[in-house]
Amino acid sequence: MIDLHTHTNKSDGTDSPRELVNKAIVQGLTVLGISDHDTTSSWQEATESLRGNLQLALGSEISCLTEDGISVHMLGLLFDGAHEQMQVMLEETRDGRLPRMRKMVEKMQAAGIDISMADVEAARPEGATLGRPHLADALVNKGVISTRDEAFQGMLNNESEFYVSHAAPTPAQAIAMIRKAGGVAVIAHPFASHRGQILKASDFQELVAAGLNGIEVDHRDQNPEEREMLRSIATELDLVITGSSDYHGSGKLNALAEFQTSPAQWEKLESLADKRRVVRA
């Protein structure tokens, strides 16, 4: 079983890197992709926890914005974690998250919602990359909503009155940096329409020109029709087709390995990195 998109408590998941690796081993995964938001801080603990036959495809899910303000997430896998320019880009993207969060909290307070930055920080694990899931958890803790999923379907949706974008690279810039750092770029859940505005089929040609390697086709946030359309686009553009859980631990309904990548597609994707960076025990 190959799951190339998961999160730990170094961003907005609830499992530590060690706990996630242990769960993957128990479930019999062969390849686990760890892609915390805009950070590589989970890599060391995950690597130190590795044993048995499990292999790690380490990476990061990079927050991007198109020129017309559409939020896009780009999975960078198998890149050189010591690549200085990549780390600068990740740091700058993380830095943009704090003012964004303050603005979202201010908007909610203006609407009479009982929430504060202190509440958000209390819901954020130490050292984790700040994100909307921590605001969702704070809203749950305050009794404003019931679950994270409810938050993302309503108050924290990209179309919500409370949503605020943040400084981020364009998808093409993120792809270029991932490839420059020796990795492979896979666009995450590009047709997840319930999250807000999505890309159009015609947008993928530009991303391929920038160096895109694959499309995350099989994902719970994309319905069967959307998956079929993405599968056709990937086939037409000769892109790798991946399936992933986007597992966040207890924070979301997504179950580890609920969607998977075929061994043949994974082999093709891995071959496109400039070096063999899969971590083995």
Automatic annotation (TrEMBL):
Gene Ontology MF terms: 5'-3' DNA exonuclease activity; 5'-3' RNA exonuclease activity
Classification via InterPro entries: PHP_dom, PHP_domain, Pol/His_phosphatase_N, Pol/histidinol_Pase-like
Entry superkingdom: Bacteria
Residue ranges of domain Polymerase/histidinol phosphatase N-terminal in the record: 2-66
A Pfam family it matches: PHP
This protein's name: 3',5'-nucleoside bisphosphate phosphatase
